[in-house]
Structure formats: C-alpha cells, structure tokens
Amino acid sequence: MATYNVKYNADDSVVRHVIIGLLADLNNKVFFYRQLDADNRVEVDVPFYYAISGDEDFLRDNLLFLTKDGLGCTPEGAKADGNYDQVPRGIVNMTGMSIDSGKLVNKRTRGEYSRMNNNGAMIGYTAEFEMIPINMSLDIEIITSSQLDNFKITEMIIKRLYKSNYFNIEVGHLNEGTYKIASYYAMPEDYATERPIEFSFDSKEGYKITFSIEVNSFIPSFEFDTEMHIGNRMFEINAYTTQQNDSQIDRTSDLVDKGVID
Q: Angle at Cα 218 formed by Cα 212 and Cα 222, nearest 5°?
C-alpha cells in the first residue's frame, strides 16, 4: 500500500480537520512589523497552535526534555534540554460544541464524493446524506512580549480578519470517500489585553491578548446504502471493419478520376 493511502485514527475526526483548517487560516494572516534599527525592518509572524493539555510530568518527559541516561532515549543535537516557548504565539482551545438544529436540511439530499476503487482509480459517487450543522466555541490566547506588541497584533487582527472568514477542508479517506466541507468564523468586537504589573521568579504570566470565536461547520452523515456511480461507464469497446469488393474499388477510382472526391 502506498504511503498516501495509509489510514490513521486521526482521519476519522471531522472536528479535528476543522480545527486544523482554522489554525492554517490564522497562521497565514496574522503578523506584524518590528523595526530593529534605522535600516532593518522585519516581519514577525504569529504562529497558532492547538492547546496541549494533560499531565505536566508526562509532557515534560516526552516532549520537552531529552536525556542520555533515560531508557530508550537517544541524544539528538537538534533538541535542547528545557522548555523554550516561542513568543509571540497563539494558542487555540476548543471549549464546547453544539448542533444548530435550525439549519438542518432534508436527509434525502444527494451529495457527491470520490473514492478509490480496487484498481487505484479515483471514482465519483453520489449518495443520500445529511449535513449536520455544528457550532464550535474556541478561546484564543496570544502570548506576546510587550504591550506594544499587544497593540500591533490586535490592530492586525482587526485589519485582516474582521469580520467574516471562510475556509474549506477536505475530510474522509481515499478508500471510504473524500469530500469538502465549508467552514466559517467571525472575529469578535471585544479583545482583552493583559500586562503584568508584578513579577516573581515562578511567575508565568505575561503580556497576552485573549478573545473567543465561534466556528460554523458541518458533520456529514452519508447513507452509503443509496450509493450510485456518477456518470456513464463503458464496460467494453467493440470495433468493426468492413472489406470493399472489386466493384466498389472501381467505382471509387472513377469518382477520383472525375474529381468528384479527393
């Protein structure tokens, strides 16, 4: 089996694909400029990541630290011993999800999708399906290094993202069917900016921007029992040839001599 056709557990979650599409859309749009000196002006990108949660010791042992004495650990020069967080950065965390029942449509609607057959060719199919509309609530926190960066990033978000934003995601799997889903989110009117007043050695609070958004998307539910192939299929091609007799050949030669045909 080819590597592009490998099935993973992550391929079964439509919500995960929606979050990835949101992160990709935010990563391409949020940045600001910083003047280093009189002659150098650089563009500072603000990357967005999904929130990592769980046991702190597990995260440190498996993601942050690398030791040569641990079982099964191999030192790599590309990694550093310690937790180095990028600043600025955005953190997205989903806080809830609900079904928008007012936007439900008839289940008898037919939708199109593509699926790979046994010969490795992508074939189009159609089946009855129901697009279940969902609303996903997400909290976004952007960590910065100064109050000036708070101002610049907030202004860039307002200029480039306010108010409506659309993106498409492709979900499913080659062997089970792939299809595109449209998603939408709107930026809020209120943005909270925080700046630390007091510092201590164990303090992790810093400059940040926080706001909440709601992503509108769909979870498709296909009835594969009603599957039909899209278009016409040719099962075999038959070709026929005929032979001319002597009289037909003489007749054709006369017409050519008279200039009737070329």
A: 160
